[in-house]
Each structure stands twice: as C-alpha cells, then as structure tokens.
Amino acid sequence: MLDFNIRGENIEVTPAIREHVEKKVSKLERYFTESLKATAHVNLKVYSDKQTKVEITIPMKNLTLRAEERHNDLYAAIDLIVDKLERQIRKYKTRVNRKFREREGVGAFLQATMENDSNEQEYADDENEFNVVRTKQLDLKPMDQEEAILQMNMLGHDFFIFTDGESDATNIVYKRRDGKYGLIETEAN
C-alpha cells in the first residue's frame, strides 16, 4: 500500500488533484509481489509561465523510483510521469530477472505477470544502454565542498567526487538545472 505525501508549490493541492495523483500512481502497485509499503513523495510546482513540473520519488528497500515531468497541463504531466515510472520498473525487472536467471534463481521482487509482457523485449533490447565505455581512476583528495565546486567548474564537469576533509566521507557535488549546486553526502552502512 502506497502512502502519499503530496506538496504543492505555487498551487493548492485540491481534492481532485490528490485523487488523480493517488489513482494514477497506485497503478504501480500491480508490479510488486509483496504488498508495497512505501511513501510516494509528490511535488507539484507551477511556474509563472503556467508550466507545471511534477516530481515523484518512491524510495523502497531495493529500489528508488524517481521521475519528473514538465507540461502545460498538470494532469497530463501526472499521466506522463506514471508512464516513465512504469518503464523504469520494467527495465529494472528485466535486468533483475536476467541476473537471477544467470545465478539459477528467479527475481521475486517483481511479479511474474510481467514475464509475458509484450513490451519486455523492448526493455531487453536496452541492455546495452549501460555499457561502460571508459573507466577513470580517481585520487580523492580531502577538501571542503566549496573547493570541490571550484574544482568541478575548473574541469567543466557537471559533478565532482571528493573526500570531505572533516567527515572523511566520500561526497559528490553537482550542478543543478537551475544553475545552483547540490551536495550528495554518503554514509557507510
């Protein structure tokens, strides 16, 4: 069962919008064997040019689903984003099942009803999409996030991996679409 956390920025989340989001996103539950215990974080944003952006993140134990969509029509954006999430699930399921078959097992995380899905071949054909074509070795020098951003900009990259000088953790800074910067902090398990 999915729980929903729906937030609106520059838009009121009306009961009609909430119902539409819950109805569409709940369709994803059919792809999971065990009852899905997750919270769907839905952010709705309306810009001054009347364009809407919908972001949905569903963190789960083995997988995090995330997609965003911009569209002039909020309801159309929700429909498109659910299609994106379904494609992500199918790709993930195809790869997981292939790996389990190679290890003489079968993926139990996603329902076997998708086994005969006519679109599965489309996702199986995408397996070469993740071919590694280049490998780099990095020497992670201890630094603070400001220095990491400067290094990233000097190199002309969109992200930069570094060791935080204070915590000794591996972190990543990245350039966001809005021109600002983000920081991903890692934790050892």
UniProtKB/TrEMBL annotation:
What does the subunit comment say? Interacts with 100S ribosomes.
Q: Does the keyword Metal-binding apply?
A: no
Q: What is this protein called?
A: Ribosome hibernation promoting factor
Entry function: Required for dimerization of active 70S ribosomes into 100S ribosomes in stationary phase; 100S ribosomes are translationally inactive and sometimes present during exponential growth.
Which family does the entry's similarity section mention? Belongs to the HPF/YfiA ribosome-associated protein family. Long HPF subfamily.
A Pfam cross-reference name: Ribosom_S30AE_C
Q: Which Gene3D superfamilies match?
A: Ribosome hibernation promotion factor-like, Sigma 54 modulation/S30EA ribosomal protein, C-terminal domain
Q: Where is the Sigma 54 modulation/S30EA ribosomal protein C-terminal domain?
A: 128-183
Gene from which the chain derives: raiA
Q: Identify the NCBIfam families for this entry.
A: yfiA
